[in-house]
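job 3f2a | input accepted
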Amino acid sequence: MAFQFITISVKGMTCASCVATIEKQIKKIEGVQEVSANLALENVSISYDPDKTSPAEFVEKILKAGYQTPLSSSQSANSSSVTFEEMNVSKLRQVWIAALPILIFGIFFNNFRPGQFLSFFITVYLMVFPARYIYKKAWRQLKSLTPAMESLVAISTLAALIFSAVILWIPAMHGGHLWFETPAMIIAFVMTGKFLEERAKRQSAASLQKLKEIQPNKARVIRNGQEIEIEVASAMTNDRVLVKAYEMIPVDGKILIGSSHIDESSITGESMPRFKTKGDEVYAGTRCLEGALTLLVTRSPSETVLANVIAAVTRALSTKAPAQRLADRIAGVFVPVALLISLISFAAWMFFQKEGQFAMALTAMVNVLIIACPCALGLATPTALVAAIGKAALNGILFKDGKTIEKTATTSLVAFDKTGTLTLGRPVIKDHYLDSSNHPDLLQWIAVFCAMEKASHHPLSNYLVSYLQNIFPSFNLPFIEQQVEVIPGKGVIYKNHGQIFRLGSLQWMRSEGTDISQDMQIILEEWQNHAFALVIFAIEHKAIMALAAGDALRTDAADCVKLLKKQGIRSIMLTGDHKTSAKIIAEQVGIPTFYAELLPDDKRKIIDDYMKKGETVLMIGDGINDAEAMASAQISATLGNSTSLALDLAGITLTHRKLLHLPAAIQLSRTTRRIIRQNLMWAFLYNVLCIPIAAGLLYPFTGELLNPMIAAAAMSVSSVLVVSNSLRIKKIKLAI
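job 3f2a | predicted structure (736 res):
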């Protein structure tokens, strides 16, 4: 029997170790083919054999691991997970205010008795209240035999607290070193990291909701000869749907009755509307600009182009990055090994040591737990990322998260959207031509033509009128809207005192037999070669004026492509626009390979093909039409003036709207990745060398165990080295 696929919502996941725990539990079930837990979307996707298992078993395993799912009616109302609302800035501020005095007492006033007692009570407060979720999660991990970083943090901080408390409260133990600053600062760092992770997770999940909000919830259909309003989800193929002017189209279908310009920017990304008439296909999420339409539904709501975009984004967000898989494997090995070494140390000292064996065994075990606590390992990546993110932000570059910075460093191919990315994304009047410039009624005619354009409500109208008013500032715009006849897809007609004024497309003018002079014809052909949109003004059957509209190229687009090439990165262009327009833009910016007349799914397929060939693809776009490709690519980027959806999906946002910042972002990410590798190498070296020493490796040679103060100092020095190395990122010069 064929495998089935299910996605189950999971509440309570807060880090990568949660993901590993859930996947490990569900993989134990017979019949499960593949499992992928997603932290950003708070769900787990499972491929399984329905003859061997069922969703009920998955829910049981999720609950047993200590997490919750809406599919279970028995889930606890009191979740032990930390949520974004709970982990807020105010609580973090309280944690740091409480932890810093402990750090000061521990470093400078360790023998000050009142400070020691105060440090004890504050540390207990931090563990019992703000950080209690860490210990609850650690307990769940240990019960399910899936220890992770929380387990090590919990055990080491509790060991440090208990050991210090014994020294503090038992008079016979006075004089030992107190380690209250260690659990306090670990808690502060861990909670800060959880806050940042949760914020990134919420932003990722919100992008899907914005996609869903594009499509209307209601549709007017004709059934049994009556017009009724239904939920879009209830629409069926072969239904007849009514759409009025300026309404969003709720379904994918073909036009049965009517014609109109359709704003397809949400799907194709193109600023210029396309004229659609009987038999043409339209898409859900686009807008009807003129007359009413009757549509025949050709796809169910779950199979529309927009629905496929949503599904593709969901799949892409559910895919694990290689760095995340590596982190899961490291966490799965490092933590159990550290715990095992601490227990072996304790047992070895209890067995071999004759005098004071318990104190020495406990000292060795705590030494291992504290010195093995992944401070340097934990700081290796985030400190470099914080430095890089700060450096980037000062230069108009926003990285969504640390994974994006690491992955951007491997970019080998950049895929550019055309409209709104390489170009400004809005129509501008490029040029005009007057065939009767010396006519005494010229200003009056231009005033009438502008009034006709305003009355047409065409997307170009405001740009065209502003352009002519700048050139001919002396005319006054008459109000003739009630007398203008709009002919969808062609133009407008205005009749006054026996004269007929026409404004519209070149094709319409020719079909009406309009006389176009030879000089104007030469100009029009030149404009057509540049893929400009043409608007013709005519009186009776004589063309008087022509205007060319097009999209303006960004001034730094060509320089961006050149700089990427110097970095060893190739560029391609993906666009929904016509081939002629795409070719012109590609040649202007120096992109040798381009793909035109693409739908969102086409862009995604091209991205996927390049990735299958081994390319690391960065997709930069600006709108909903690019969402599928951006979600599919390993890295995504957008400009600061893009749609909110593109901003949510993008791993990189260029806030200053400068394309030159893209190669700068890649340069910064490459430097950051190199420093992260240096930090990790030192962190692992530190643990490899220091853990055996903490366990007592040097005792046969020195006659003493490692002093706890030296252990704490070693941990501090390791962290300082990592932080200092990371701060070098702030000094690099970006090629902007």
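job 3f2a | DSSP finds 25 helices and 25 strands in the chain.
job 3f2a | closed
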